[in-house]
Design brief:
The protein is mainly alpha-helical and 180 residues long. The chain is 82% helix and 0% strand. Helix 6 (86-99) runs antiparallel to helix 7 (101-111) and helix 6 packs parallel to helix 8.
Length: 180
């Protein structure tokens, strides 16, 4: 595989592994090496030749190891292919929320299912940088656990901001008092 990274070499390397557990474990390394040589072909190979846990492990490994070097569209396509792998999706969402929190929040809302953790991450980052926009967008979410998670982050950041402001005022009062 190192000298000739292609689908045939990758398939042969995985086929040589007898147990499903070994295939799942080693498909990670094989997929990652193949991706380094030819990303699109590696992803196509993962989709067509790997099944079950081996496929999920390979997709997750490629996302974790190479996601930062992918453009946004590649990251999105890959994240959507990883079923139930919240840690990979969380990494993707964190990166995306830094660039475009509204788009990240809208994507999560469209995923359905239980997405409170992802929504909480996006709104936590968004509220830190633009609490008013985050709050306005959270109001547009349908009622439910994801909306509750978004609003909880907004409340958290409002409280933190208020505490900072009170601390700053207390510092100013203390300095003013000491100067008298």
């Amino acid at each position: 595989l190192r000298e000739h990274p292609d689908a045939a070499a990758a398939s042969a390397a995985v086929a040589d592994l007898r147990s499903p557990a070994a295939r799942a474990r080693f498909s990670v390394d094989i997929a990652s090496r193949y991706y380094e040589a030819d990303g699109p072909a590696a992803l196509e190979w993962i989709e067509s030749d790997l099944e079950g846990r081996a496929r999920i492990n390979a997709l997750t490994a490629v996302f974790r190891r190479h996601g930062a070097s992918m453009d946004f569209e590649q990251q999105l396509v890959l994240a959507e292919q990883i079923p139930g792998e919240e840690s990979s999706k969380l990494r993707f969402v964190k990166d995306w929320a830094n660039r475009d929190p509204e788009a990240a929040a809208s994507w999560i809302a469209g995923q359905g299912g239980r997405s409170e953790r992802l929504m909480s991450e996006v709104y936590g980052q968004w509220a830190r940088t633009d609490i008013e926009a985050a709050e306005a967008h959270a109001e547009s979410l349908p009622e439910g656990a994801s909306r509750d998670a978004a609003q909880a982050q907004i409340v958290r950041w409002r409280q933190l901001n208020e505490a900072r402001e009170e601390g700053a005022r207390a510092g100013e009062i203390s300095v003013d008092f000491e100067q008298r």
